[in-house]
Design goal:
With about 600 residues, this protein is of the alpha+beta class. It has seven helices and 22 strands.
């Protein structure tokens, strides 16, 4: 390189480096030597989404630069570099050189003409500042001449930059006047679904589980017509300090099912109720449940009133506050409308009732659903902690009550079947240890202890969830000790093998000794970016919750077979805000009886997010 070219490059480098507002670097010797800055990811964890991350380019922002006072502070600049003297001169004469936080200059990085124009504009401002401060002797005549020439050459780009700044200032002013809140962000999800169900209960003496403990047939069910349902959710995320988060959720839906005009007379306007396999109280608990249906249909089981959001009314389904404890790595949460999966990571990639698995069974380990933990209506009041022990170890625990707002316990006949009070009636105490032994493996170990005032599991995934201990009355209180394990192994960045296991010991608290054990498991494969980026495919197989054994007064076990669930779905990502998911799941030996017909549930779910 000749001396004349070096001098010109130094002058241009001067114009850029004088900018000060962005880390403009010396021009490369040749275009072929230009290097681009790679993208980086900044993890942004929400209280509910534990694995989310937002792509952000390595933008040239003020927050990412750092003032230096000596060229020697720049680790990648050497005295032998051709631009060393120019850089050194800028530090001594103008004091406007900047570097990256890691004390590098990255002199071979290429810049656009717009970046150059922005730097030149800031350079002019810097010169004016020096003149105004009566330090014009620092600005040499030849430097000003070079700047004038550059200003003329880049006049169009400078005008564009100034126009963009003016436009941004105008937009910022408008947004400040019209913004919803300075502390709150609004997000939303709308689900439209087409679904049906085939393989109705045949009647004619075939057996099924009933809440009363009997196992004789009952009237035959019917195949369901194609139904068009919706669920709308709006979520307000509010932070008062930047370290806390208040989650307020509103919803509306038009799914059926729930308590009828009298106890023991359930509505049958859900898919599972129409088929004839659902429980005999709410007409919803069944193997044939969609992922996005509320657990108890249109009913709030704590007081037998309407569930929030039913019949497309507007109801509060989420109210939870998450805040720092003041102890390093320890976060606390409490709320009057919460779900277990708000705090506990689901681990499996099929999780997400609006985006992934189309069945209730396929979405998560039943250990997270026990005791109405994921009712879809924010049934429980809960409090607990999140302790991020390390990057590889995370411990969480909670206490939840589904009847915390009720002062008096009237029992099933009095309209409070689950009990009353924060510490009276039904409750659950649960914990989860999440382990990440390698970057590709996630493990979760769970334990939950529950007390229910009536004979239920609170799962919603099988008819055995109501009348859990057979041959025992519906009002018999039960105690549950439940265990779960979940794993996900990303064998490639796009392919994950996953599965879970669940086992619960259910014992009668009063009356003669009676108990039952409930078993469930699942395994599957999840593939990302199928056909198009963001589209996913899931295939899973397993056993929905079913009785494994009974003892005492619960004998004999009513079922003569094990139910099995097979599911496949494909989520097609139309764009960042719309996805369409066709899927189908098949239930063999529904509710654990070999005489029951195989159930087939086809689904097409369209999800809008904003």
């Amino acid at each position: 390189m000749n001396k004349k070219h070096v001098s010109l490059t130094q002058k241009i480098g001067l114009a850029c480096l004088l900018a000060g507002s962005i880390p403009l670097v010396g021009l490369p010797v040749a275009a072929s030597e230009a290097e681009t800055v790679s993208s980086s990811k900044v993890a942004q964890l929400s209280p509910q989404d534990k694995s989310g991350a937002i792509e952000r380019p390595s933008s040239l922002s003020v927050s990412e630069i750092e003032q230096v006072t000596s060229v020697s502070q720049l680790s990648d600049v050497r005295p032998t570099d051709w631009a060393f003297q120019a850089l050194q001169s800028l530090v001594e004469r103008y004091g406007c050189i900047v570097g990256y936080p890691d004390k590098t200059f990255r002199g071979n990085r290429a810049l656009t003409r717009y970046e150059f124009a922005a730097g030149l504009n800031s350079c002019l401002d810097r010169v004016n500042e020096l003149i105004a401060a009566s330090t014009a002797d620092l600005v040499k005549k030849e430097d000003l001449a070079t700047l004038q020439k550059l200003q003329e050459e880049f006049a169009a780009e400078l005008a564009t930059v100034r126009g963009r700044v003016d436009a941004l200032e105008a937009r910022t002013t408008t947004l400040e006047k019209q913004q919803f809140s300075t502390t709150t962000k609004l997000s939303g999800e709308v689900i439209f679904s087409l679904a049906s169900a085939y393989g109705a209960y045949p009647g004619l003496g075939n057996r099924r589980s009933l809440a009363s403990g009997t196992t004789t047939g009952g009237a035959p069910g019917n195949d369901a017509n194609v139904v068009f349902n919706n669920r709308v959710r709006l979520k307000l995320l509010t932070s008062f300090s930047g370290k806390d988060l208040l989650i307020t959720g509103l919803q509306a839906y038009n799914f059926g099912g729930g308590l009828g005009s009298a106890i023991g007379s359930p509505r049958r306007d859900s898919l599972s109720g129409t088929l004839g396999y659902a429980d005999s109280i709410f007409g919803t608990a069944s193997n044939a449940r969609l992922a996005f249906e509320p657990q108890f249909g249109a009913t709030n089981p704590s007081n037998l009133s309407g569930a929030p959001g039913n019949n497309n009314s507007i109801g509060l389904y989420k109210l939870l506050y998450i805040f720092p404890s003041g102890i390093n790595k320890l976060t606390l949460f409490a709320g009057t409308a919460a779900e277990v999966d708000d705090a506990f990571p689901a681990i499996i990639p099929f999780y997400g009732d609006g985006q992934e698995s189309v069945s209730r069974f396929g979405n998560m380990n039943p250990i997270l659903r026990i005791s109405g933990g994921t009712s879809e209506i924010g049934l429980a009041s809960a409090a607990g902690f999140i302790w991020n022990i390390s990057d590889a170890l995370d411990l969480r625990a909670l206490y939840g009550s589904v009847n915390a707002s009720l002062p008096a316990n009237g029992g099933l006949a009095g309209g409070t079947p689950l009990g009353a009070g924060l510490f009276g009636g039904s409750y659950v105490a649960a914990t989860q240890l999440t382990i990440k032994p390698t970057p590709a493996i996630d493990l979760a170990l769970n334990y939950a202890h529950s007390y229910h005032q009536i004979n239920i599991l609170g799962l919603g995934e099988a008819a055995v969830a109501v009348g859990a201990i057979p041959n025992v009355g519906a009002t018999t209180p039960v105690s549950l000790n439940s265990f779960g394990a979940t794993a996900a192994w990303r064998i490639t960045p796009k392919v994950t093998l996953t599965g879970f296991g669940f086992y619960s010991f259910v014992d009668a608290v009063t009356g003669p000794e009676a108990s039952t054990n409930i078993l469930s498991y699942m395994g599957g494969i999840h593939i990302k970016d199928v056909l198009t980026p963001g589209s996913t495919f899931g295939l899973l197989f397993g056993q929905p919750p079913a009785r494994d054994r009974v003892s005492g007064a619960a004998s004999p076990k009513p079922e003569d077979a094990k139910p099995y669930h097979l599911e496949a779905y494909f989520k097609y990502k139309v764009n960042d805000n719309i996805s369409i998911t066709p899927g189908v799941f098949v239930i063999f030996n529904p509710e654990g009886f070999s005489g029951n017909r195989t159930i087939t549930v086809p689904v097409i779910r369209t999800t809008f997010t904003f």
